[in-house]
């Protein structure tokens, strides 16, 4: 783990423990914020002076001091003190989604619960029932929250959750009374993994949609069915599961039914992120306004929420109206992460799916793809692309039927013929996805690579290498004059394989210097580069390729996941090679080569 990640984890722990000990809310938020900022920071906190640390947004003098102590002594006094106050087993209890710090603190102080096991035992024995203000319903919720963590465990990849959410929204849209409906939450923000699915709707009357939601196909359990919020646990082994990808998994889906006049405010609130929402509320307060899920209201001293007093909102019907009244641009959902977006005067021209005109990473039956060369080219034409690069695997990828040099040369001849046959309709490039060996050498000799139009170099093995070796390995590839694109740079697989953890700061700067494009692999299992890496690359001025790593025709549909990841990293059109004209793209591919020979 990088030092930044370690520091961020330590700060997060401080925040969690502070919540349990009933520390001031603002201190908790300050530590959470600092943790997030440091996790995303492109610079290494190990090499920053205390002054530089303090110049980081969200890091004040006190937190800077904690960071300095952590890197010098590997500990933080305050964290140790908090740990001494709180039983270690409670941390695990705190991590159960749906179990808030207030409840956990009560369980601890009033019932002496200090670990998950003790909590389960107490639930079974019925002893918690005698606690004041701990009703049967609360206890049932706690039981279900625990059962849910145990069966679902990890977060769902977006590629599983998004099609499921779209199907639910489409189903509910046709229900009587439903006037507006959309998914929100992390799904709308395009995060790579999803904790639960959030849906917001306007329905009048609300009963039909509530009924349809709680009885739809796949519902395993109805967790709540109230006036404004319904919640279900959904099994993902229904007809909506695509090639078995969600089978056996369960996901929680929340439906909020909101008044038509609050649509924009509700969508904004439930899209989040929580951190972005907090920023918006702070900004509202500075302008003597108050923001909640019902609207943006003038600030007054009345403790009753304004919507209950019939106060007329300043804005509430659309997200745009609310942002405008706050003096802000309407951020695309992917940017709403409190990663500096509130400091922008205008939104950069972020890349969109419709901007993508070329696929530069695709496989055929020559290696492990399912399409013939002609089928692949047809599929690319159907997508409206001007260029398709054929990049089958190299010989080291034996399990993927990688090509020997002889087979590669024969393949290249066929690709060139295909290209000639297609005339101006589409450019078919002869390339390779060449394996990066463990030491950073490539799987074909330079003279072979020089015969190709495009070289994508990717790591497929040796992915648990230590970070220093990984950095050296990838730098060697970036410095290789014949490489155009570094494919799925870390090799991570969601949700479990971490992949390489190179020093991304060095990687992006080298890539920028050598004119190598870093790939965002759009397959929802990869999304590698991930969003924070994209942001670093964008800040360094790197080129980025967004590719689908096509093995089957439907893989082209994964493009939207890659594009969302790109947008989360603030990638603009001009730095994305797949948005360029055919001429500009071909010129870049050739020029890099001329730079190599000259
Ligand atoms: P997830 O489900 O873990 O992938 O992440 P989200 O972002 O979908 O989070 P979730 O489902 O807990 O809540 C959906 C949105 O609702 C969240 O992004 C912001 C809003 N929200 C939920 N709880 C709070 C809260 O305590 N404070 C604020 N300000 N917003 C919240
Ligand atoms: Ca969610
Ligand atoms: Ca939720
Ligand atoms: Zn690959």
CATH topology of the largest domain: TIM Barrel
Main β sheet profile = 7 strands, parallel
CATH 2nd-level architecture of the largest domain: Alpha-Beta Barrel
- Write out the CATH superfamily name of the largest domain: Metal-dependent hydrolases
Distance between the termini: 40 Å
Regarding CATH, which class of the largest domain?
Alpha Beta
Strands ordered across the widest β-sheet: 10-11-12-13-14-15-16
> How much of the polypeptide forms β-strand, as a percent range?
5-15%
Average pLDDT taken over every residue? 92
Structural class: alpha/beta
Helix run count? 23
Structure write-up:
It is a single chain. This protein is α/β, with parallel strands linked by helices. It folds into four domains: 150 residues, DNA polymerase, domain 1 (Orthogonal Bundle); 101 residues, Beta Polymerase, domain 2; 80 residues, Beta Polymerase, domain 3, CATH 3.30.210; 245 residues, Metal-dependent hydrolases (TIM Barrel), CATH 3.20.20. Helices cover 43% and strands 14% of the residues. It has 23 helices and 16 strands. Strand 13, helix 19 and strand 14 form a beta-alpha-beta unit. Helix 20 crosses helix 21. The site of 2'-deoxyguanosine-5'-triphosphate has 14 residues, from helix 11, helix 13 and helix 14. One calcium ion (CA) binds next to loops.
């Amino acid at each position: 783990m990088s030092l930044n990640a370690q520091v961020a984890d330590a700060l997060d722990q401080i925040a969690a423990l502070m919540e349990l000990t009933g520390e001031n809310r603002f201190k908790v938020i300050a530590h959470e914020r600092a943790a997030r900022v440091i996790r995303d920071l492109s610079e290494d906190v190990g090499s920053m002076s205390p002054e530089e640390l303090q110049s980081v947004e969200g890091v004040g003098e006190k937190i800077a001091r904690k960071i300095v102590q952590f890197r010098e002594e590997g500990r933080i006094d305050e964290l140790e003190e908090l740990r001494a106050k709180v039983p270690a087993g409670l941390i695990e209890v705190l991590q159960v989604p749906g179990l808030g710090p207030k409840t956990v603190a009560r369980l601890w102080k009033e019932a002496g619960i200090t670990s998950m096991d003790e909590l389960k035992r107490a639930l079974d024995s019925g002893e918690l029932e005698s606690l004041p203000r701990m009703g049967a319903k609360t206890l049932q919720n706690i039981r279900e929250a625990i059962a849910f963590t145990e069966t679902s465990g990890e977060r769902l990849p977006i590629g599983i959750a998004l099609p499921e959410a779209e199907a639910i929204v489409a189903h509910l849209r046709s229900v009587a009374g439903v006037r507006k409906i959309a998914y929100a939450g992390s799904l709308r923000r395009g995060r790579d993994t999803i904790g639960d699915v959030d849906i917001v709707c306007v329905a009048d009357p609300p009963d039909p949609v509530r009924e349809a939601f709680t009885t739809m196909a796949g519902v395993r359990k109805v967790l709540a069915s109230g006036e404004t919020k319904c919640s279900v646990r959904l099994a993902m082994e229904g007809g909506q599961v695509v090639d078995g990808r969600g089978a056996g998994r369960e996901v929680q889906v929340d439906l909020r039914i909101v008044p038509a006049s609050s649509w924009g405010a509700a969508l904004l609130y439930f899209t989040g992120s929580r951190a972005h929402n907090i920023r918006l509320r702070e900004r509202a307060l500075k302008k003597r306004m108050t923001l909640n899920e019902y609207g943006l209201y003038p600030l007054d001293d009345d403790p009753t929420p304004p919507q209950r007093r019939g106060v007329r909102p300043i804005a509430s019907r659309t997200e745009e109206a609310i942002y405008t009244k706050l003096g802000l641009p309407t951020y695309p959902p992917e940017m709403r992460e409190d990663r500096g977006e509130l400091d922008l005067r205008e939104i950069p021209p972020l890349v969109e799916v419709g901007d993508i005109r070329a696929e530069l990473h695709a496989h055929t039956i020559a290696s492990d793809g399912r399409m013939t060369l002609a089928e692949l080219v047809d599929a690319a034409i159907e997508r409206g692309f001007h260029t398709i690069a054929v990049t089958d695997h190299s010989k080291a990828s034996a399990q993927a039927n990688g090509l020997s040099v002889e087979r590669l040369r024969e393949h290249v001849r066929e690709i060139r013929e295909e290209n000639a046959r297609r005339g101006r309709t589409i450019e078919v490039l002869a390339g390779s996805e060449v394996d990066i060996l463990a030491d950073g050498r490539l799987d074909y000799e330079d003279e072979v690579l020089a015969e190709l139009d495009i070289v994508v170099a990717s790591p497929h093995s040796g992915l648990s290498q230590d970070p220093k070796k990984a950095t050296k390995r990838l730098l060697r590839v970036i410095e290789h004059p014949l490489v155009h694109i570094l494919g799925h740079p870390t090799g991570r697989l969601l949700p479990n394989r971490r992949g390489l953890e190179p020093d991304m700061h060095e990687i992006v700067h080298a890539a920028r210097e050598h004119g190598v494009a870093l790939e965002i692999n759009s397959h929802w299992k990869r999304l590698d580069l991930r969003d924070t890496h994209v942001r670093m690359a964008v800040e360094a001025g790197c080129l980025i390729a967004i590719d689908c790593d096509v093995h089957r025709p439907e893989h082209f549909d994964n493009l939207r996941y890659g594009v969302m990841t790109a947008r989360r990293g603030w990638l603009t059109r001009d730095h994305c090679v797949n948005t360029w004209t055919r001429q500009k793209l071909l010129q870049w591919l050739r020029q890099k080569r001329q730079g190599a020979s000259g």
